[in-house]
Amino acid sequence: MPLETLAPELLKAFWDTLYMVGISLLAAVIAGLPLGVLLFVTDRGLFWENKPLQTILGFLINIVRSIPFIILLVALLPLTKLLVGTTIGPTAAAVSLSVAATPFFARIVETALREVDKGVIEAATAVGATPWMIIKDVLLSDALPGIIHGLTITAISLIGYSAMAGIVGGGGVGDLAIRFGYYRYDNTVMITTIIILLCLVQVVQFVGDSIARWIDKR
């Protein structure tokens, strides 16, 4: 298929991919950030120590993370149908992407928080800082560059996952590659979609790294 004929489809697929990744990334931040903080502060020796809760949360997160995305995508079709009324299209695919991204980002947040010097936390506790103040002004502030790097990694993973969502009619660049590139044996479409995904990943990585360097006070 000539590129000039394909251009409208490519543009729509590109925006669908951004839409899916944007929604799922927002969901990962809203749900995954507090989940990651909770995993950290309930650990042994910290101010909200609660080992049973941390163990249960960690177990549930590991269950979701251990399921390959394509299987998770199919398994969540009934939930997707219930939530958005359909199992095809970018909005439907965003449900599965959000479920996959949330535990992934939560673990990254937990890892970033573990890089914060324990002495700083102990000093804040000693001067009477409340748990919320420690979380907001110490933990998240010091771990922010690492969290931004983690958000970048999550976004890039979601771009790859969104391409897989095309297998079940999720829309986006992956759906275009399957419908026109794979089923119709059109190498032009396949190569074009690969180039688009490569460029998108490079841009996301560059922006994420730039923001992380800008806010890093160390």
From TrEMBL:
Main location: membrane
Localization (cell): Cell membrane
Xref: InterPro entries: AA_ABC_Transporter_Permease, MetI-like, MetI-like_sf
Cited PROSITE patterns: ABC_TM1
Membrane topology: Multi-pass membrane protein
Domain ABC transmembrane type-1 per the UniProt entry, residue ranges: 14-208
Family in the record: Belongs to the binding-protein-dependent transport system permease family.
Entry keywords, A to Z: Cell membrane, Membrane, Transmembrane, Transmembrane helix, Transport
Protein known as: Methionine import system permease protein MetP
TM regions (residue ranges): 20-41, 53-76, 82-106, 143-168, 188-208
Pfam families for this protein: BPD_transp_1
NCBIfam families: PRK10782.1
Superkingdom: Bacteria
